[in-house]
Amino acid sequence: MSQDAKPLLIKRYASRRLYNTETSDYVTLEDIAGFIRDGREVQIVDLKSGDDLTRQYLLQIVAEHESRGESVLPIDVLTDLVRSYTTQAQSVVPQFLAMSFEMLRDGQSQIVDNMARANPMAAMPGFEEMQRQQQAFMKTMMAGWPGIQESEGGSSGDDLDDIKKQLSELQDKLSKMNK
């Protein structure tokens, strides 16, 4: 497990080839995306300058997936991201996105359970199959995200209150950042 604690070091040579220092072989962007999906943290550095290029390459991976039709980010979100680079909000956007993804990882199973409880269609024939498909979708969507744990058991009726409390805390943090 100690191997997973430190990031996988990838070095970029002057030829722009990417070199995996653990396995001593060259890798592609798709290989790096696979490492990340498997839960590994990666760090990509320029061999000559020592500059950290991780952000640049992660953005390139996202852009390639988006351009192939594997869209995860809605146009509105992309537009808001572009706007955030030209406004005072840019200091808040990274923290907001990080907290949002953290909440998504922490509450993925609660979301599916609460949707089922709050939905009056739950009594319809076939609803359990639809719920199973939703859970499979969420599991697939979150596959490879570090920190995500599957929840097999049921949850208490306080889950919705917990989610509301977390949302309120997030709103409080955001309002404090804006001051």
Automatic annotation (TrEMBL):
Residues 73-111 form the PHB accumulation regulatory domain. Coiled coil: none annotated. Pfam families: PHB_acc (PF05233), PHB_acc_N (PF07879). It comes from the Bacteria. Signal peptide: none annotated. Residues 9-69 form the PHA accumulation regulator DNA-binding N-terminal domain. This is Polyhydroxyalkanoate synthesis repressor PhaR.
